[in-house]
Specification:
Blueprint (H helix, E strand, L loop, with lengths): L1 E7 L2 E6 L3 E6 L13 E7 L2 E6 L1 H4 L12 E7 L2 E7 L1 E7 L5 E2 L1 H4 L6 E7 L2 E6 L7 H16 L5
């Protein structure tokens, strides 16, 4: 498995590189009316409206204003493209099976975490963005995006 390791508030997280399409410098986000709290806003990526997911909210981290040093990690979640704001993208890592522990045995009830990577310099939580949005949040996001697109809103 290959992962992209990134950092938020000094804590390292990762996404499988199979889900990641690119890492870009952060840009100003437009608030999305009626979106669930997990959505920080929306951005324009190559003419496509993309929601930015707020990992800080999901993990109970304090909010932080957008910084010019932040990165946006663009990833696919099934048919949906999303962005995740990170303090910084750190590295690409290749893992073998011995380096990944299934979290279902370690921390039950964390469906959005698929594993814990054991790297030489510490542990990294590997996320599954497919389960990151709860069903009600995904439906609310779809509705909010539909409202913006039907109103002809530009981002």
């Amino acid at each position: 498995m290959d992962i992209l390791v990134f950092e938020i508030d000094g804590v390292r997280y990762a996404l499988p590189t199979s889900d990641v399409s690119e890492v870009a410098p952060a840009v100003t986000m437009v608030p999305l009316p009626h979106a669930p709290p997990i959505v920080e806003g929306i951005i324009n990526v190559h003419g496509r409206v993309v929601p930015v997911l707020d990992i800080r909210t999901r993990f109970g981290r304090p909010p932080r204003p957008l910084s010019h040093t932040d990165h946006l990690i663009l990833a696919s979640v099934g048919p949906r493209m999303v962005a995740v704001r990170a303090d910084r993208a750190l590295a690409l890592e290749h893992l073998d099976d011995r380096q990944v522990e299934d979290t279902r045995h370690v921390v039950p009830g964390t469906d959005y975490i698929t594993g814990v990577a054991k790297l030489a310099d510490g542990l990294v939580l590997i996320h599954d963005l497919r389960t990151f949005l709860r069903e009600a949040e995904a439906l609310a996001l779809d509705e909010a995006l539909s409202d913006v697109q039907s109103a002809g809103g530009a981002v």
